[in-house]
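Run log, item B.
One chain of 380 residues. Sequence copied directly from the ordering sheet:
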Amino acid sequence: MLVLTGGPGTGKTTLINSLVRILEKKGQRIVLASPTGRAAKRLSEVTGREAKTIHRLLEFSPKKGGFKRNEDNPLDADLVIIDEASMVDILLMNHLLKAIPLIATLLLVGDVDQLPSVGSGNVLKDIINSGSVETVVLTEIFRQAQESLIIVNAHRINRGEFPQLKPQLGQRSDFYFIEKDTPEEVVAVIKELCAKRLPNAFRLSPLEDIQVMTPMHRGTVGVANLNAELQALLNPQGKVITRGGHLFRVNDKVMQVKNNYEKDVFNGDIGTLAGIDLEEQKVQVKFDDRIIDYELSDLDDLVLAFAISIHKSQGAEYPAVIVPLLPQHYIMLQRNLLYTAITRAKRLVVLVGSKRAIAITVRNNRVQRRYTNLAARLSI
């Protein structure tokens, strides 16, 4: 067993690719997986090989309510590589370990400084802190990555340093800060960025390329209000269906918020509402290249996703990310939250808010403690 950890731009993906290519030549049976569908798709794209969600890898059976792969029916593999391992909670890790044959090697790859798993435990950090598993920590930011303010600022924030808000002379800019002090001003700027400024300046699609991510669910700059504002702005017309006070339109950006193994869609998957049949009381949602039918009762599993919480962004990447930060968010202003948010962006980050809120966030490295006892048990 081996752990490979490091921040953005330090070479985790390059190492995965190299290991896979070398060991495939040696006839090794290699399995790739990630905790979420989005992360698995990204792993597949960067390696050029099939990658599955851990649930699909372990062949979850909705009828039986358990996994077909276990100690009695282990995986057919010599090497199991799990990417975005910081997202794996303790229950899923338990099932995964049972299914790995004793002759195989497990490689856990992830950024230990990201937000911990939504589920219980802090598995990756505990494994590293136990000192019982060999761990490789990548620290060098490679030259190409050093040209990106997204990556440079991610590492600055992770070290507790204030981010560089203006590019150095001759440095390309992929990181911007727009200073606004009130929630109403922040919302107005976000709407302008989504509808006009970013699409015009960077040729970005407001629905497909730009993701607004906020620390809070409630309030003027919370998920609910931002979704209402952005839906009215970006998708104001079209056939409508309502469920439980939520209004959905054709072409809305939506997110699945509950694992549905029968439909093969999972918590955090983002799609587009492709059709509404009012007579049948059904809707169709497009996830990548798949169309999934939803009954009216299934709509409880969908929410608008023009804006999402930063916690819901784990395991995903977006061309452009907009993050509002105000002192009113102080309950949620933690260093690893901002670090996670900006490392979701591939091409562009725009922070909107106050420098005071950024400073509060960078200074606050206190995270909610999780009482797992795993590190102590592993080190015995």
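Observations after the first pass:
- The longest strand covers residues 345-353.
- The chain has twelve helices and 20 strands.
Flagged for discussion on Thursday.
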